[in-house]
Design a protein that fits this description.
Elements: H1 3-18, E1 41-46, E2 53-64, E3 67-78, E4 82-93, E5 97-105, E6 108-120, E7 128-132, E8 141-154, E9 157-170, E10 174-183, E11 187-197, E12 200-212
Antiparallel strand pairs: 1-2, 1-12, 2-3, 3-4, 4-5, 5-6, 7-8, 8-9, 9-10, 10-11, 11-12
């Protein structure tokens, strides 16, 4: 395995360690920064390995308690690393945004202390919110802050996107911090994340290559 591939494996493992309204009631595409539907798929290039892409995909729905959620799988696909599951999110839609109800960390599924937003339908500069997953050791803490609108160009095209600062901490040795850019009706079009794990820092940039809306 090459040095860059090894670093990608470590970075993705760190992200997995950090991770944490009914499905039929999703708002129209004009109302959301994260369009959820069965089969929705986002493919991203990454600066860590030319032959590896990141894929986020809505693979189905599942109830968390009484709430029907979309299951979003985050994985890497490429000839060097093969297909690797990074993490999963169980997301639901309510009148104000996309809400996280459960996340996975490694092989463990973690419910949250209280459902919190992944992203809101209306994004105002300097708006902030937080959330936390349940875990006996080092529960992940999430913090979000809206930084404003920017023009972004990625392989999939040019977008007017809202920059969101994201910080995730799980104990004193594992953290991820950086920015995600959300475009209306598309979702995340770019991310720049620095990951701290086992005393090392890794930075990774991913850019949207293709978005395939679900049905």
């Amino acid at each position: 395995m090459t040095s860059s591939a090894r670093r990608l494996v470590l970075a993705l493992a760190a992200l997995a360690a950090l991770s944490p309204a009914p499905a039929g009631a999703a708002p129209s595409l004009d109302d959301t920064y994260y369009p959820l539907a069965r089969g929705s798929k986002w493919t991203y290039t990454t600066d860590y390995a030319d032959d590896t892409v990141l894929v986020h995909e809505v693979t189905g729905t599942e109830k968390v308690g009484e709430v029907e959620c979309f299951v979003v799988e985050h994985k890497t696909i490429g000839p060097t690393l093969g297909t690797r599951m990074m993490r999963k999110e169980w997301l639901a839609v309510d009148g104000d945004g996309i809400v996280i109800h459960k996340v996975s960390r490694g092989k463990s599924e973690l419910e949250v202390e209280k459902p919190f937003f992944k992203i809101k339908h209306i994004l105002r500069k300097d708006d902030e919110w937080k959330g936390q997953a349940k875990a006996e050791e080092n529960p992940p803490h999430y913090e979000y802050r809206i930084e404003g609108e920017e023009d972004v160009e990625v392989p999939a095209g040019k977008y007017k996107a809202v920059k969101v600062h994201v910080k995730i901490e799980s104990g004193s040795r594992h953290a991820a911090e950086g920015s995600e850019w959300y475009a209306k009706n598309v979702g995340i079009v770019k991310s720049e994340i620095t990951i701290r794990a086992a005393g090392e820092d890794f930075s990774m940039v991913s850019e949207l290559k293709k978005f395939e809306p679900g049905k």
